[in-house]
């Protein structure tokens, strides 16, 4: 079975693929020539990282492939869904990236709840002259413990987030029609194992109960949260999107923050990325990061082992 590593591949990983029985071609093919090249050279698997930017029209012409492997730390759920929708197996390191995502969500929650995103902007500018004023301004934050976190969708990163949130004393609710019940056991570094038993609730119930919300749907869904959602979320303090662009309607989100009905938002994925709108970038209540939720030193090393393990399944087909 032949793999095209279009964005290159580490030599040790290439050797491991070859040991499994794959033939690896390490060639850089321009996107407009990708369909013809993979057909002519009888490529079975396309392996890409960040350099190859697929779109839906190209994917529709790649149906002759058995699989497309996404080996980068940055994921595009809409493109992954398009690959699956065209009958091509999509392989990506969801497990390797899930912990990094869960930790980034918590980083935004902690930052927003204690107003650190604003303090970090203003301390360098006014800390020496207005220390007492800033101290008073940013002493109105809230604690996560004892609050309720609503997780919309329960993918692997959502499960990791639930685990960590429960450990912090946060009540967790979730909604996911594909997973009516979450039954899991999580082992801590000291060997202690604690069980998690959660049942999916309706979206309306989640919105009504949640003080914080994070999005973790398994598939791309445009505007999971919008103005109607905010109207129902009367107890909402903050919301985080580390999932994918357009998970939250940003116009509605800016309006909600401007009305001061919610305290903050944490945004790692933007509607207009890679050129987020200025209204979002300049909103002081927003804790911002540039699509790095899945990118850590650890995740970059863990990706390849998971991809190697999953790629073995192709050989059995």
Verbal overview:
By secondary structure, the protein is of the alpha/beta class. It is about 40% helix and about 20% strand. It contains 13 helices and 13 strands. The strands form 3 sheets. Strands 7-6-10-11-12-13 form a 6-stranded parallel β-sheet, sandwiched between helices. A 5-stranded parallel β-sheet has the order 2-1-3-4-5, sandwiched between helices. Strand 4, helix 4 and strand 5 form a beta-alpha-beta unit. Helix 5 crosses helix 8. It is globular and about 65 Å long. The model has no long low-confidence stretch (mean pLDDT about 95).
In the sheet with the most strands, the strands line up as 7-6-10-11-12-13
Distance between the termini: 11 Å
Put simply, the count of helices is 13
Coarse structural class: alpha/beta
